[in-house]
């Protein structure tokens, strides 16, 4: 038979809570490597924040559609590389990449445009002078981009088309006058339908290239390949889609003995001589690559090129020491908040205050386990904004206890009930208020999470999560513990519960109501 409204079997509720804690910590210690520490954000463990500024050939503002597409591609690159805890957000016409830990070098490479094109080599010259180093910011000037395009992509550099494509009369002079530079203004802004003057990665050879005959979008897969007997260095192995495979087969069949350039963001990464027709579409990009470079290039090519070119306008590194100092400050703030709540509850509520302290400690226990598991399952990282959310949640949780305890006092003071009889009735009324309050808090957190970005999302997430866990603690721990205390003769003593003053006031009110009735009987 079910107990009356407000009356529960506290042992069952406490047992269920213990089961939840056991399951959570079993997952913490026996899954995901068993490391019981949450993932920390850049402001707590240090890391790198890179700001990529979009640029267009004519200097106009990039479209929102292109920016969103670029952000999505960078996010895909992040997921493919496996950089955990990375955040990619739009900030005006900039894309901000935040990478916690010691993976900042990878973040700086994520903004590479990666526009790959296959072009026929029409002429090549060896470069004997080192590449020119332009003044900072000169390559980002729209005028420099247009000037470079006019000089290096002039249509009269070539004659003919298709199988008859050849260097034009002015090509030799233009190639001789062309100098390699460490910062190419055409990077990501070249026209694939026009010829191109370009240099290799080392700046030791420059080329006259025909228009792009095969785009990188036709790549089906790209993988890093280790050195072997027939190839001394690291390479990137490519496989093409059906249309690209046919285009590559036709080109290699007709151009045996000629060179084809693999051009990445206007830079020639490899220009091999075609030894035989390649009919199966499997091709290698070779060059002076290290293992890390081939892996980065393969990942970038695999996940697609960006619709815009970007420059790294700012790269901020947060040291681990500063992160630890921030974490310490956050923990101190949380500790002070907890201490103030503890002191207030112990002074004002006495035994009920002790139950509050126990409930908050158990709440912290499950919050920590959930943080560790969320870090493994969804790569959730705790940052300073999240710590602030938890500190505010201490007040939310304590507020639920205050609502319950004050309702108990109301039942004793106004209804003249004992501590034991006031608990079930007080809980029924307090429960509605607690649910309504937490529902409003959770809804506010959800809306804030949906419309916010960056650190504010972390704040909203932790606040909403703590609100849900608050309900678990209040229903499965605080209420059952109060029920147990109310059934104990020792623990329910007024001097321990702090309810003595309320019970005395209730007794005085009962006496005051009885006095007039007694006085009337004597007069008659």
TrEMBL record:
Pfam families, per database record: Sec_GG, SecD_1st, SecD_SecF_C, SecDF_P1_head
Residue intervals passing through the bilayer: 12-30, 329-347, 354-378, 384-405, 434-453, 459-485
Domain Protein translocase subunit SecDF P1: 67-121
Cellular compartment(s): Cell membrane
Main location: membrane
Topological type in the membrane: Multi-pass membrane protein
Domain SecDF P1 head subdomain, first and last residues per copy: 203-307
Domain Protein export membrane protein SecD/SecF C-terminal residue range list: 311-485
Entry keyword set: Cell membrane, Membrane, Protein transport, Translocation, Transmembrane, Transmembrane helix, Transport
Role: Part of the Sec protein translocase complex. Interacts with the SecYEG preprotein conducting channel. SecDF uses the proton motive force (PMF) to complete protein translocation after the ATP-dependent function of SecA.
Assigned protein family: Belongs to the SecD/SecF family. SecD subfamily.
Assembly description: Forms a complex with SecF. Part of the essential Sec protein translocation apparatus which comprises SecA, SecYEG and auxiliary proteins SecDF. Other proteins may also be involved.
Official protein name in the record: Protein translocase subunit SecD
Annotated source species: Amycolatopsis thermalba
